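pinging the channel bc i need a second pair of eyes. not urgent but kinda urgent?? the chain im working w is below, pasted from the shared doc
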Amino acid sequence: MSPISNLMRALSALSAALAVFSLLFSTITPSPPVVQPASAPIARPTFTPPAQPTPASAALPESTSTSPTALVGNTVVATCDESLYPTPTPPPNAQPGVKSADGTYGDRFSTAEAQLIPSDPSAFDANGKLLTGAAAPLLPPAPPRQFAPLDTPTPDRSGAAASDATPTAVATPAPVRPKRVVIQAGHWLRGDMPYQISQFSDDGAYVGGVAEWVLNLHVATLAADLLRARGYDVRIVPATVPIGCQADAFVALHADADSDPSTLGYKAAYPRYINNPANRRLLADMYIEYGAATGFTRNPSITLNMSGYYAFDNQKQPYAVDPSTPMLILEMGYISNDYERQFLSTNQSIAAMGVANGVDRFLQGK
């Protein structure tokens, strides 16, 4: 066989081998690329602010509502000036804490004044009807002030006496509208407070199954019903007071607590920086009537936090009562005391009667 023939046979065999090799690899499907699975998202804990406690035992029985949350309707909650709660710009500075001259946080002026106010007589009968011949209590001169009030006195819009002396009867024009009363249920809806004032309030006391804010709301609701029945226009507001709130009387309701369970009694105070003579008259009427209704004793430990209550101080932040409005804060009793907690938990109507009588007596000038 010639060399050329051998070469041609070798090339033919190589060509056949290449054809088989190509056919073999053309029928093999390549494996898909391996894709790393996406990493599962890391579960991060979420923070939910704790809600105000609403234990069943704190749902006090005398309210006309079956649940405190049912009281959030428009028939109960209303602003003082029929407007929304605007956010001020720029935000005010935080109210600094202040001590009295002797280095304590007690308000010596308010404590001394409470001791001067008479304890009786009540101007109402057991049914809340104004007694014939009821007169305004005679008040001694106020004690020396611990802090100076505002230089400019605010007008007395209440129709009550503008001085501590017994007033002379003066003919007044008939009112064109019912007098307005604003009652604040302390700590209620505290979680909705704007950031400017959220530092001035917490969720309130909680002792023995009784939440302070629930108690405040129940008494406020019952007192409002009593005052409406007497012809007043009454609004209940939460912890956030509408900006520039105006009324013929403003009362902030709270209940106290102390580490000593034997501490008891009620107490009240008006703003120490506002020079409105009507505030002192409202204070006297509330002291007399609330004490007469409940039989509670007066607690002398009035603090600067009371007379400097955030809802009073429109010089430092806007969510406050207009200074021309007669106003006070009432600590209705100590829920840390077994007797007063039991009383306030089962006799809200009596506490509400005391609140209503105090406001009514003031607005009637009696």
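so The first strand starts at residue 180 and ends at 185. and Residues 3-26 form the longest helix (24 residues). — does that match what u expected or am i reading it wrong
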